[in-house]
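Bumping with the actual sequence this time:
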Amino acid sequence: MKSAVFRNNPLFLRNEFEVDSKWQLPLIRKQNFEIDGVGLIAISDTKYNDKETNRKKGVHFFVDDYKFENVYRNPERALVRLSQYAFICTPDFSTYTNMHYWRQLESIAHSRWCGAFWQDQGQNVLPTISWGLKDSYEFCFSAVEKGSMVVIGMIGCKHSKE
């Protein structure tokens, strides 16, 4: 009985959002909102009831994965903290070139799900695009509506000129 309840738990299934591509990644819709002059704050620097100046910033996830894994595991709790900011970039879960593609795909799926969830909750969301090697392009660029503003991390570009 308990396993049947668990199998139907929305946070286990995570299939409540429209999907895109053969990978069935949750689709992040294009949003138009003003970002000129808006600063960024790292997820690791956010806090509940943050000061007013920080609330005018967008939240980025260009920090080690362990510092933000909870946004996927406990999305409602994370939203309480994140909803006070101007916008939220989707999590930049790692897509290292030495990871198997299933792990990279999982990272992209978690990021897209968080973005779709936040949009569903009325938040302004900027999708973060990250990739491994050329073979990962097919899924790394998927499930972001065409014409969307996006965020791209540069750490991979610094470490691997390929």
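The tokens above came from a reply further down the thread. The chain has a mean pLDDT of 91.
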